[in-house]
Here is the input.
Amino acid sequence: MTEIVVHGIPFSPYVRSVIMALEIKAVPHRMQPIELRPVAGGLGSAEHLQLHPFGRVPILDDGGFRIYETQAILRYLDARYPQSPLQPTDPQAIGRMSQAMGILDCYMFTQSIRPIGAQRVVGPALMGAASDEAVVAEALPATELCLTALDRVLADDRFLAGEALSMADLMIAPQLHLISPAPEVRSMLNGTRLLSWFERMLAHPSMIATPPPAEFKLPRSLFDLKAA
Here is the structure.
């Protein structure tokens, strides 16, 4: 089997989603980091733009076949490597999975994950920068709206598309993990069904096998989340 190469920023939750899928499917792979610095091959460089014309991550290379956009990559992997399927077959479950991923890509990442993650986790950990509390405050209404919407999608099931793990869980859990150090996010999670789901995801082997950088100090369990 050809070794898959995942090009991306190591701490990106979208990159982590792809690696989680590969772990679940036991597909050989390696990570090819894209540096944040403006160097050859770094983020936004000519080499990077050849891989992804919009300058984002991840990019997957499967024996010379390259594909970008996380949803597209996950759907490709599920078709190419059908063991341990990550997509339901029930029409309503398919709809729930797609809806949850749409909430993330259309609203949650840009309005919540990116600003809170940058201010509360990435900036302090990598650059020693203080959080801009105004930026965090501006992102909180969208965060609460998105978490409420996802809580409704989850309802009383174990996972976002029903009783089986799906691509929606792999996409959203790493994103929520990134912003979970923010006390406002922990407060929003209290009393929701998402909190139990998040506990299950933190304990899932695919998340354990893909830890974020240690300097981010993300919780490893629900106990850590409550104690933080």
In short: Strands lie at 4-8, 29-33, 59-62, 65-68. The first strand starts at residue 4 and ends at 8. The CA atoms of residues 173 and 198 lie 7 Å apart. The chain has ten helices and four strands.
